[in-house]
Amino acid sequence: MKEPNVLTMKDIAKMLKVSVATVSRALKDSPNISREQREKIQKFAREHNYYPNVIAEQLRHTRSAPTKVIGVIVPEFVHYYFSSILSGIEREAYKQGYRILVAQSNEQYTREVEICESFFQNKVCGIIVSQAKDTKKYDHFLRMLDNGVPLVFYDRICAGINCNRVVVDDYMGTFNAVSYLIERGSKRVAYFGTDLDLEIGKNRFNGYKDALQKNSIPFDESLVKLCDTGQQAELVTPGVLAMRNRPDAIFAVNDDTAIGVLQTTKRMGFKVPDDVMICGFTNGFRATSCDPMLTTVEQRGVEVGKQAVEVLVDRLQGKHPINHVEKRIVKTRLVIRGTTR
Amino acid sequence: MKEPNVLTMKDIAKMLKVSVATVSRALKDSPNISREQREKIQKFAREHNYYPNVIAEQLRHTRSAPTKVIGVIVPEFVHYYFSSILSGIEREAYKQGYRILVAQSNEQYTREVEICESFFQNKVCGIIVSQAKDTKKYDHFLRMLDNGVPLVFYDRICAGINCNRVVVDDYMGTFNAVSYLIERGSKRVAYFGTDLDLEIGKNRFNGYKDALQKNSIPFDESLVKLCDTGQQAELVTPGVLAMRNRPDAIFAVNDDTAIGVLQTTKRMGFKVPDDVMICGFTNGFRATSCDPMLTTVEQRGVEVGKQAVEVLVDRLQGKHPINHVEKRIVKTRLVIRGTTR
User: Fold this and answer.
1) In this predicted model, what pLDDT tens digit does every residue of B46-72 receive, in sequence order?
2) The pTM is what?
3) Which residue among A186, A214, A259, B189 is least enclosed by CB atoms within 10 Å?
């Protein structure tokens, strides 16, 4: 498959006196070789304008024609945000002449590993994936990279790999939403959020904290709750609204939680938005079903899916040096409805 | 690929002095041969216990190993019912060792045709499909059948082909829901439904009419509206509730419409359920988001998807004579919440 006058990994390996596997790992930013060696090899590749030939690479690995099929891993289909991302992926893939093999991990690491293997057997040309909540190891992802199957992460990014990704602007989305609550008169904004281990949880929390600071409102630990489902909201909200110095606004990291907060708040006899303002994050169908309708951050799943395909196809067509990592951030937008004054 | 002592289409063709293509069409219930000939060939096949060997058949057609990939066509992913069906399909397919290629028709005939062709090129072993609203011709489906690619329809069935199908019990689901509204004191139940051309629309409407009749409530044309989206509901509801002899209950064929009715009814100052009872059909996330929460018919999408895969796999494994058509009906169940007394 070698093309004339094109530098291959083999050439680089020969010149640097290392194994091809080492070169391959280095160019894929695999952490399982020493940092020095990785950087040395990447520097060399850059200087000699090494460009990947993924098709050829894949041929070497799979010994059969590369497919125009993209593997897509979704934590769960029955979820507004994920189904809109899937919709964006399918439309863009179709436009670019690709088909998609789809599987859901059901948030399980073991299932995710099996899916990767089966996608590889099905000779997918790349994988677009949102990591399962359950996933703490990422050897299965590295295996794909080592076998020349490019990955693009969306929504939940694998912390262990410096890899192509498309996410929404969680930080600014939250910063703007919380700033708006303050602008509308809130003096005490509560934050109902997720696990700070997840990058997405961290970014939203920082957006919240910075919005308070920028508006010189003191940060109050007691207003921050680990609560990211509607059911949890029904358990957590009563305690929060029973505080002597109760919040006059609650920001929740997703619509399901926000609606749980809204329903519980109303049940307790508080008026929304007069007594308590509420803001969510998603803008799914539920946001226009509740009463009053939900002010929320539009997460633009279709756009995220579309861009994930663009990033993968660029990679497949060798638009960038192989060690280039594309990180895209999709802007969110605040949709103002009845739960805010 | 011929196995010893197994009757092939070729054998049947020879014995009946017709072409193999004719036999193939007859055994696939293709309407484009004469009814007599079709029945004669099917009778012969039954009598001689002809069983299909789909794998071999597929090999003859595609000249390559059969894949364990099922093609799935969904009208649109961002839709609670369809995403739950897709979830059921994926889980069952995975359990049975199949992968799924997924595409959305966006309710367009042309797109549906392209998807079928691309699925065929991708050598899917079968196709599970819900017909696009836009589809009036079905030559693309017949082409698949004639090429040995079995089809299973779900939700929206192709009227033109006597084919494997899995649907929910629209008739009984509606009959029971409307009977319940009457049991709870309704004297006048309005019906907001879809196009009667669609089988699904016809069955639900008949369930409504029969429920009235069984409870000896006169049928009133003026209470039947063509209205199956939330936006339409906002336009149609005011007129209906302004009638001199207004309905005291409204049954809507899906939750989106029912929630549009609920929001408009409240906006007009009527109390739900005291002045007007409302019942939907889906039981998606929206049903528990509105206030009061929606009484609705649970549509069991995951079960529909699961059974669609079962039907296809039975067919692939030749569990039934090739001319056998499997028609499954999944029972619905009424979920009672706050929009009914």
Assistant:
1) 677 565 544 344 444 443 445 899 999
2) 0.80
3) A214
